[in-house]
Predict the structure.
Amino acid sequence: MNLQVLLLRRSVIPILALIGAALLFSLQSDYFTDFAGVAPVTAGSFNVSSEQSGQQAIKAPDFSLLDAKGKTVQLSSLKGKVVVINFWATWCGPCRAEIPGFINVYNKYKSKGLEIIGISLDERGWDDVNPFVAKFRLSYPVVLGNWYVVRNYGGVTGIPTTFIVDRNGDVVSGHIGYFPQDLFEAEIKKVL
Amino acid sequence: MKVVNLSKNKPFVIIMITALILWLIATFFSPPAEISSSPQMTPVAIDTTEATKSTINEIVKRKLAEGKSPNKLMKEKSPYLLQHAFNPVDWYPWGEEAFRKAREEDKPIFLSIGYSTCYWCHVMEREVFEDDSIAALMNKFVVSIKVDREERPDVDRVYMSALGAMTGSGGWPMSMFLTPDLKPFFGATYIPPTTKYGRMGFPDILRKIHDLWKEDRERILQVSEQLGEYLKQSSAPETKNTKATAIALERGFDSYSRSYDKENAGFGGAPKFPRPVAFNFLFRYYKRSGENRALEMSLETLKRMYNGGIYDHIGGGFHRYATDATWHVPHFEKMLYDQAQLAISYLEAYQITHDQFYADVARDVLSYVEREMTHPDGGFYSAQDAESAISPANPDVKKEGAFYTWTKKEIDGILSAEEAEVFDYCFDVQSNGNVSADPHKEFVGLNILRRAHTTEEAATRTKVSHLELEQVMIQMETASASAREKLLHARSKRPYPHLDDKILLSWNGLMISAFARAYQVFDDTRYLRAAERASAFVLAKMYDNKKKVLLRRYRDGEARYEGHLADYAFFAQGLIDLYESSLDIRWLQKALELTNSQNDLFYDPENGGFYDITGVDTTVLVRTKEYYDGVEPTGNSIAILNLLRLSQMTDNEQYLKLAEKSLEYFGDRMMTTPQGLAQFLVALDFSLSKPKQIIIAGRKNDPTTRSILKELHSRFIPNKIILLADGGEGQRVLTSYIPFVDGIKMIGGKATAYICENYACKLPTSDIAVVAQQLDGTR
């Protein structure tokens, strides 16, 4: 239990809101016109739905990052799976709070084609991340983020930030801040 | 006399009781609830020969030297009680000895409650309790008990509630008649020495009570039973627990808006009491809603209060209240709790506006407290009297405001011509005196200084050219400052108003907060030291480290009376503020320790909310949960806010639950009568907001750490918590509460800010500009 979980208990749980793309995707920079700046400024969730917004689906920017063993994890190689991309860090209270829920959901739906990639933004890299992964028994792949991936995903300014990518490689929703297990699971079930 | 509105009592109960006591009231004509006249006073030239420090010990010494023999109050430590130690009345302190005497001798108890800076308490003492023949009657017919309400707010609260039920109002001095089992049956406030204008004098009341006690005891017992029952009921009124929403905040604002005095600022009409909890709430409401009017009303009131005579323009600090609507004519007593809370109001006004004016007032108030209200070992005294001796030769002949008021002749005699010209203009010094609202002709020919003009206005008046204006203003500022110095010096030769030098825990808690907050804003270590010394003082002298319990009052080497909720809550708040200022983990640990004691001693697990007292002392008839945030906040509102802050700082779910349940206990009142619960609204605002959690990784005195803190405290961010991950003991302790703090580390060897809000964290940064953006929510 941590600060943010506590906070959550006494306020309205952030509800997935369908917010128009125009409102949300005010671009932070012109670097990534291909990916319309998935960078909501405040905590909460949003869906990206072509039917709703009348816009083209947004392709999740590809990345290729290394895990603790030096193995490459590449997004595009996971095509056909539902992929959750979670930006986090070991010092981040809300990240710690949601990770056990992620592990539960991952173990439940892994066989049905769910993949989760934890992209750590820890400054000191594996020195901090490895002990954490061991302690919390993270069962899904964890990689270290870099400037490019942060930029490509809208300049991630707050963590945790979580994107859900469907089997076609399109980003269907994003969420900034603590993602409670029940809401997370509901989102996953929609796209699996 | 202070008159409090007790309309919060349930009307139907009042009717029920009124029916029963009508005969009593009829018997006594009308109980005096309001003072309509006061002794006439004429101005007397002030003798400024020798400086006199006026503490109770010196007065006692003098009286003993005069050969006066003391009564039982002599063994007490309260200055107020000691003031009455030489009355011919056979006073007893509140306690079993007096109660036993009443039972054994089968006499009613006369209970007189007041406090040392209470003007009308002194009047009644002079007129009634120092009168030998009246004292003889008292000693014959009743057992007389004196209580200092500041030491025993618990006893005061019970009987004030009864007085409210009987008369519809109340105030001090409070005069109550009780049965030997402590149930009240008749009460009044000030009672004159003789029967006049249809109002019964004290001797006649005594005789009547005596007759009734002897001849119609049944009726008296019936009334006392009914009142006793009423007290029990009113202490635990039926409430439905309600979750208050942001609507309570809006209603609170509307209500303040409606009562705002557009002409003179402030809320409501005369008499005008500063009510710092109102500023606390309105500043937060402004921050939450962006409602400018909440800010403007507060700022204007703070400005007018400072400009008025309610402010001591020579020595600094606020008098207790203004008798007129324009803040000009005060009652001159100065209370520690006002200085503490108002210093914070001005600090917050400065954080919001960055207008130097508010910073200057805050500093000036704190200087006054440092100079005149601080015990050599660091605790803070309680109050200074309104009246003082006119001449040192005649220490018992006192006059309200004698220490603070001036004739123009005096001022002009002390200042140079140049200084006098500026000073008299700026501070409204007039040859015939400047007090127009003076119904009792107390200030004829005298000036109560008020800031009538700015130096800019004074400079403009000289009709110098535009270019010279600034030069003239600087000259005038200098003249004005030196005038103030000279007058302060001259005034220090006058007999001082009596200093109530007892050290009260709850008020010290408020003052510790003020100094701690001032250190945050001004980064001046002398404020931090003041807060730390006072906290150390309390922990050394007023805290039982083994039992983890606080004592309420310290004076003259003695700590006594078990702490009340307000003592625990205000002191814990002071310690939380002190932690967020000093970032020394020990203060946070103490705050937690005391909060745990507080929860054990006062929390009502069944209904939520905290009792004001432990309930151990059975002589206090009822265990209340005060909900009216008056000139001081309630214990409950501060206790709840503390729990909300600490739950965030230490990830304590239990604290959060207690806070939420307690907020619900008071929720219905917040929704229906929000103006009376301003500090509760502050707690509600915190609970409804998403507080910023600001954790700084770095050494306490590292320059980057300091810059981050400076950036932080230059803003008004009410709903936040601050923690320091210092890489040492502090971080180790914090990690034991919140595991992730272990991972909060400096980046690149530089102090680093980690800011989280609304379940999400910003990326850590050492860049002050980025910190600023993150705090302002633009990134």
In short: Helices of chain A lie at 3-9, 21-24, 50-53, 93-109, 126-136, 147-152, 181-191. The CA atoms of residues 15 and 45 of chain A lie 7 Å apart.
